[in-house]
Write a structure and sequence with these properties.
Chain lengths: 605, 280
């Protein structure tokens, strides 16, 4: 996987005279936050493709269970030599692996690293006016610690069981007793090692982001002049720093249960698949508490940066200040704070003390409050603006529209009695895909179109961008919206063949419709891929500020060289002064000195 | 494409969204039985009511925000909007309104749920009020479980209390896969697992409880319609998770149930050792 060779066309002319050592230092083990950001971007986009193909496998089985996949089915499952490969069919073991690895790849190798790793790395120093991260070596390590994860996840496909298959939540005893399932052996061990490694990578990143944002802002860049993207990245880094160690420790505990015979998660006296687990005296619910103590905040790690970037894009293309800057900041803080005390809502029917369910329900309900505040403020921002329907703007607007759906369906689940019925059904699957795909992934697409000119000095094609948006938008709703309806029937998640239940037998046609939409959705990403790679080399070259935006990254060259800025930016105002009456242009960049020099050049932070 | 097309695309979200749900609820052709399955549990009705209450509330907000977004996109397009932008940075009163209103609503939703939650998971049916004669106190005599349900990879096993009403005695009746229960009776089930996590899910009774090895859980309900219903495993339990199906047969009366239990007991005793043989 060559993640770096195409990453930096801006430096291409110096390549010929470079020694191998220089090349490695510049593009492979680079200390430059921009190169590291692009390394993250290319790696995660590649894994995005892998995760999407795994999803198509799931969709195929749900639409046409036990039927041979055209073309690739016989290639994947030829012969019938092993028990899991039967005449081109997807076996139940394989199906279980598919949804486990789809979620694992999408969460740990795509969404979290593309937001924090790619955009966090690329944008934080540029948007605060710093020349690099506070700790460049740590920053480099945060990318290279992803590689053990890539390798371990990748290798888990090729050991016994062909990939971990106890769900991305990896609940013991299924995950921790090797006899419990074909894939609970080495595949699960590799899965745990990979998650631990991802944890270390994120940890290194988050320490760096916090320090950089606190310590390295340009003169005049007060905390309340930071763009929303940076606020979101800052709060995300806090979440990562305080929640992640819990998952990492839990992962190590499960590894110990499996490898050295401790008994954290497996109770006494079990007979699993006709064998007795070696250890005992543990409690399966302990894992669930530890896992969700990280993984619920992780849900916000996966949405807050997207919210920040969407805020910046919407304000820029509304040509209007963002509505309610401070309430937006407080809402992010509110979401993050509440995010730490709501993990139990994943466990309403787990057997946890029902009294706890009541407090977790009330806390969870209140997460909807800052989310609502954000939505209303986005609507307030487009109100009375001069909207430009560019590709990034369309993606950002769709984020708002889709986030409303994902947010509102969350209220059903927060309500404990209703959750009894919809827990572990497709209602949940609908909810998190509306937040994570229709929300975050759409915001990521928008952000790529938006910051592409800064990254590569060229524009992506607008017309094809809009085609990409239009079909992605249609197909994603066709794929994910019917999941609400399935969920209302009680259609359970994670079943290789739900249709032998009389309650669900008649739902196959709807699943076929969804699968066709899913195939369409993955296919149209080809348009994006072609546009992306073509534009890196042949897109129209642009100057420093193609969108007439206000924030600091747009005063650096496109793409910025090492050290980012060719002059010391001084910040005079917030990043959202679009249409200010003080100037004739419809934007008023943060770095532009006020007309009269009487105003002091902003207090140092 | 012009801004009008994009505005209409965003308008189509609430239209299709609400439309398809109305279609499903109305049971119209193409979407028959695509909504909540029939509820046959006296205690499950409240869950459906709460579901519908949240559905109407969130549906209204969905339509409201969708229309507002559509209208702003339609009206404030850069090419057709000649007016200068509204140069404002926010509005304190508005922020207060749209913080307090949702806060009150959410608090209300969450308080409305509490009683139903307690009924489902905390207030197990009782036999009598206990020595102090007051129901709802700690010394209430709880109704004992009628059946002990055990999940294992990949089947449900049942152990009926038998004539003496106690599980774990010699007159227990054992069964696999099909669970038989009486109609119009408060039924308490004790559920446990002997290997990994499972979840005991009765879609038609709005009952779901994860089964955790090392713990014993109780569920209760009151079926009000005879028939055969699905028992679904709703927590991933391994490669055969999908086939861990059970059937619930609700018989019309307690007498029918007693009669079935007696027949099952006799059939079981014929097949197994007599006590005398066992002693030898």
């Amino acid at each position: 996987m060559s993640t770096t060779s195409v990453a930096s066309p801006g430096h291409a002319e110096t390549g010929s005279s470079m020694s191998v050592g220089d090349f490695v230092r510049t593009y492979v083990f680079s200390l430059d936050h921009k190169i590291i950001g692009l390394q993250f971007l290319f790696s995660t986009l590649l894994w995005f493709l892998v995760g999407g193909l795994l999803a198509l496998g799931i969709r195929w089985q749900l639409a046409w269970p036990w039927e041979t996949m055209p073309v690739i089915g016989p290639m994947l499952f030829s012969g019938g030599a092993s028990a899991s490969n039967m005449g081109g069919q997807i076996s139940p073991e394989f199906y279980t692996m598919l949804f486990t690895m789809h979620a694992t790849v999408m969460i740990f190798l795509v969404i979290i690293p593309i937001l924090a790793g790619a955009f966090g790395n690329y944008l934080i120093p540029l948007m605060i006016g710093a020349d690099d991260m506070a700790f460049p070596t740590l920053n480099m390590l945060s990318y290279w610690f992803m590689w053990p994860a890539f390798i371990c996840f990748g290798a888990s496909f090729f050991v016994a069981g062909n990939g971990a298959a106890s769900g991305w939540t990896s609940y013991p005893p299924l995950s921790s007793v090797p006899e419990a399932a074909p894939s609970s052996g080495d595949a699960q061990t590799l899965w745990l090692l990979a998650v631990t490694s991802v944890g270390i990578a994120s940890m290194l990143g988050s320490v760096n982001y916090m320090t950089t944002i606190i310590q390295m802002r340009a003169p005049g860049m007060t905390m309340f002049r930071l763009p929303m993207t940076i606020w979101a990245m800052f709060i995300t880094a806090l979440l990562q720093a305080f929640a992640l160690p819990v998952l990492t420790s839990a992962g190590v505990m499960q590894l110990a249960d499996r490898l050295v015979g401790t008994g954290f998660f497996v109770p006494e006296g079990l007979i699993v698949n006709n064998s007795e687990p070696a250890s005992g005296g543990g409690q399966p619910l302990l894992w669930q508490h530890l896992f969700w103590f990280y993984s619920h905040p992780a849900v916000y790690i996966m949405i807050l940066p997207a919210m920040g970037m969407v805020s910046d894009i919407i304000s820029c293309f509304s040509r209007k200040p963002i509505f309610g800057y401070k309430p937006m900041v407080y809402a992010i803080c509110g979401i993050a704070g509440l995010g730490f005390i709501v993990w139990g809502h994943h466990m309403f029917v787990s057997g946890m003390n029902p009294f706890l369910g009541m407090t977790f329900m009330t806390a969870t309900m209140f997460i909807a409050l800052p989310s609502a505040v954000k939505t209303f403020n986005w609507l307030g921002t487009i109100w009375g603006g001069k909207l430009q329907f560019t590709t990034p703007m369309l993606f950002a607007l769709s984020f708002v529209s889709m986030f409303v759906i994902g947010g509102l369906s969350g209220i059903f689940m927060a309500a404990t009695p209703v959750d009894i019925f919809i827990h572990d059904t497709y209602f949940i699957v609908a909810h998190f895909h509306y937040v994570l795909f229709a929300g975050t992934a759409m915001a990521v697409f928008g952000s790529i179109y938006f910051w592409f000119p800064k990254m590569f000095g060229r524009l992506m094609n607008e017309r094809w961008g809009k085609v990409h948006f239009f079909f992605t938008f249609l197909f994603l709703n066709g794929t994910f919206y019917p999941m609400h309806i399935l969920g209302a029937v009680g259609f359970p998640r994670r079943l290789a063949d739900p249709y032998h239940y009389q309650t669900f037998a008649h739902l196959q046609p709807m699943n076929q419709f969804m699968t066709i939409c899913a195939i369409g959705m993955v296919s149209v990403q080809v348009i994006f891929a072609v546009n992306f790679f073509y534009s890196i080399f042949f897109g129209p070259a642009v100057g420093r500020n193609p969108w007439n935006a206000n924030s600091l990254e747009w005063c650096a060259p496109s793409p910025p060289g090492h050290g980012n800025f060719d002059f010391q930016p001084i910040v005079y105002r917030g990043p959202y002064e679009y249409g200010s009456p003080e100037v004739d242009t419809d934007y008023y960049p943060q770095w532009q000195a006020p007309p009269e020099a009487t105003e002091t050049a902003a207090e140092p932070s | 494409m012009g801004h009008r097309v994009w505005s209409l695309l965003f308008l189509s979200v609430p239209i299709w969204g609400i439309g398809s749900i109305v279609w499903a609820i109305a049971d119209l052709p193409g979407m028959e039985r695509h909504w909540l399955p029939a509820n046959i549990n006296d205690y499950g009705q409240v869950i459906d009511s709460l579901f519908n209450f949240i559905l109407y509330l969130t549906g209204a907000i969905f339509i409201g925000t969708g229309l507002v977004q559509f209208w702003f996109l339609w009206k404030y397009d850069a090419q057709s909007n000649d007016e200068p932008i509204k140069f404002v940075h926010g509005n304190h009163a508005l922020e207060l309104i749209w913080s307090l209103l949702p806060a009150v609503t959410l608090l209300f939703i969450s308080f409305v749920q509490l009683n139903a939650w307690a009924d489902q998971k905390m207030r197990r049916p009782i036999l009598s009020a206990g020595p102090d004669g007051v129901e709802g106190t700690a010394d209430d005599i709880l109704k004992p479980p009628l059946v002990e349900v055990t999940g294992r990879q990949f089947e449900w096993r049942y152990r009926y209390a038998g004539k003496d009403g106690v599980i774990g005695t010699r007159d227990d009746v054992h069964g696999v896969s099909e669970l038989v229960l009486p109609m119009d009776e408060d039924v308490v089930l004790a559920i446990k697992s002997e290997d990994v996590l499972h979840s005991f899910f009765l879609p038609n009774l709005r009952v779901k409880q994860d089964v955790v090895p090392g713990m014993k859980q109780f569920v209760w309900f009151r079926a009000n319609q005879a028939g055969i219903y699905d028992i679904v495993c709703a927590e991933l339990c391994g490669w055969g998770h999908y086939k861990m199906r059970g059937l619930l047969r609700v018989v019309p009366s307690q007498e029918d149930f007693d009669q079935w239990l007696q027949t099952a007991y006799e059939a079981q005793e014929l097949k197994s050792y007599t006590p005398d043989e066992e002693a030898e």
